[in-house]
Design a protein that fits this description.
Layout: H1 2-17, H2 20-31, E1 67-70, E2 75-78, H3 91-113, H4 124-133, H5 138-151, E3 154-157, E4 159-161, E5 172-178, E6 184-190, E7 196-202, E8 212-215, E9 220-222, E10 226-232, E11 240-245, E12 254-259, E13 277-280, E14 286-289, E15 298-303, E16 306-311, E17 317-321, E18 326-331, E19 337-342, E20 346-351, E21 362-367, E22 372-377, E23 383-388, E24 393-397, E25 402-407, E26 419-422, E27 427-431, E28 437-441, E29 447-451, E30 464-471, E31 477-484, E32 487-492
Parallel strand pairs: 4-8
Antiparallel strand pairs: 1-2, 3-32, 5-6, 6-7, 7-8, 7-9, 10-11, 11-12, 12-13, 14-15, 15-16, 16-17, 18-19, 19-20, 20-21, 22-23, 23-24, 24-25, 26-27, 27-28, 28-29, 30-31, 31-32
Helix pairs in contact: 4-5
Length: 494
């Protein structure tokens, strides 16, 4: 019995002795002070801190559970699973350093290269030559010209002018939403003391080379969370803003219709503040305003397992029960349909001509594998684009109810992120949970541009964007607006 156990121990020592990998790395660990020290022992001095380089280059080095191999130091460092300790060597901190290193590298590459072309051989001279030879029709030429300009956009910081410069000095942008003509931005900012502050930025001064915008003087504050927002056309196009506020304590949730003129201190002649009204609606996840003549002056709100369609003039409501929370909504313009995206992954259309719970009110049904966060109807209303919490973006044919195109690269795990479709420019824009803004070609799903955030990536600092060919109105600057933290940036066409 003792002899056999002694032989097994002797055999184990012999196997380690003749294992070349074990001898080599065992020597390295001993010479470097040992990887299997206490947490404090692995961070005595600055020269022993691991670099931020990725471990992808050390794929030949075996992974040891609980340890991180630094290829520059050529040694292992111990990892701690938790966050409530003084050792900086946690998996999360190492991953964050690698992400930040990649972001800084991409920013440096963009600044150094100046112009970044998405497709090989894709330049203005080749497009013009193909157009003259008849290889490209007018539609294809205009679309490819837009893609070329998107690939060459340059980042510039926008100066925000205000009568009270300290009003936005410490408040972070949470949301920006451009109106139909892209000459105004509705902004929602997170306030440090809690709650949200919202107002309107006038984009008429957004012209190169100096990019300046003006924040209207009247800013409104709410202690409740702004869950959803959209522009509303009650008196005229984009005359109001529809806000959905969450309930708090004994204060119920509501949908508030605010005149845009409230945010301006001096009103032009004939432009008086319009209707201001509030509707008691519990916990709306989404909202949409109807421009359809068969649902005139109506808005919808997506609730938990219910959709409400409310008339602003009469206050009449239609209620449609659903099997899941409704996270995204949009009215069709020509057909009397309201499209809804649910947490269950279902997308369905409500026929507004049906009664509240009448049969057959679900006109179309599509399905994603994850919660749908955004739905966008294309102009001809034959296609619909949707994104979900799995990072999937699909273009659906509403006539055949089949997916005809998928846009890859979007990153999302659980966030409620919007999707921007611009048919005039032929592009799709989405900001991922990794804080990267991605631009695809609408027609062939080619990824045209990946723009890193100008600030360090954070779950609380996901950029909000607005894209238009006429930023600031009819003669405005074409490009992309990006709001992150306290800053506003413009990526204008060259």
């Amino acid at each position: 019995m003792h002899k056999s156990s002694w032989q097994s121990r002797r055999h184990g020592r012999r196997s380690h002795q003749y294992n070349p990998w074990f001898r080599q790395h065992g020597h390295n660990e001993r010479s470097n002070g040992g990887a299997q020290q206490s947490p404090q022992g692995s961070s005595h001095s600055d020269d022993e801190a691991p670099s931020t380089s990725s471990t992808a280059g050390s794929s030949s080095v075996p992974d040891l559970p609980g340890y991180y191999f630094d290829p520059e130091k050529n040694r292992y460092f111990r990892l701690l699973p938790g966050h409530n300790n003084c050792n900086p060597l946690t998996k999360e901190s190492i991953r964050q350093k690698e992400v930040e290193s990649k972001r800084l590298q991409l920013l440096e590459e963009e600044d150094r290269r100046g112009k970044k072309i998405a497709r090989l051989g894709f330049n203005a001279s080749s497009l013009l030559q193909k157009s003259k030879l008849g290889f490209l029709n007018v539609t294809s030429y205009c679309r490819l010209a837009h893609e070329l300009r998107v690939s060459c956009m340059q980042r510039e910081k926008v100066q925000i002018q205000s009568s009270d410069p300290s009003a936005l000095a410490s408040d972070r942008f949470n949301l920006i939403l451009a109106d139909t003509n892209s000459d105004r931005l509705f902004t929602v900012n997170d306030v440090k003391v809690g709650g949200s502050k919202y107002g309107i930025i006038n984009l008429h001064g957004l012209k190169t080379p100096t990019l300046r915008v003006h924040m209207d003087e009247n800013l409104y504050f709410t202690s409740r969370k702004v869950n959803a927002v959209c522009w509303a056309s009650l008196n005229h196009l984009d005359s109001h803003i529809l806000l959905c506020l969450m309930g708090m304590a004994e204060t119920p949730g509501c949908a508030t219709l605010l005149p845009a003129s409230l945010f301006v201190s001096s009103h032009p002649a004939g432009d008086r503040p319009g209707m201001l009204c509030s509707f008691r609606i519990p916990g709306a996840w989404s909202c949409a305003w109807s421009l359809n003549i068969q649902a005139n002056n109506c808005f919808s709100t997506g609730l938990s397992r219910r959709v409400l369609v409310t008339s602003v003039v009469t206050g009449h409501r239609q209620s449609f029960g659903t099997s899941s929370d409704v996270l995204a909504q949009q009215f069709a313009l020509m057909a009397p349909l309201l499209f809804n995206g649910c947490r269950s992954g279902e997308i369905f259309a409500i026929d507004l001509r049906c009664r509240n719970q009448g049969k057959g009110w679900k006109a179309t049904r599509l399905f994603h594998d994850s919660a749908v966060t955004s739905v966008q109807i294309l102009q001809e209303e034959q296609c619909l684009m949707a994104s979900d919490m799995a990072g999937t973006i699909k273009l659906w044919d509403l006539r055949t109810t089949k997916c005809i195109r998928q846009y890859k690269g979007h990153v999302n795990e659980y966030a409620h992120l919007p999707l921007h479709v611009h048919e005039e420019e032929g592009i799709v824009v989405a900001v991922g949970q990794d804080c990267y803004t991605r631009i695809w070609s609408l027609h062939d799903a080619q990824l045209l541009r990946t723009i890193p955030s100008p600030h360090p990536t954070s779950k609380a600092d996901i950029p909000s964007v607005a894209f238009s060919s006429r930023l600031g109105g009819f003669r405005g600057v074409p490009g992309l607006l990006m709001a992150v933290q306290q800053d506003l940036y413009c990526f204008s066409y060259n």
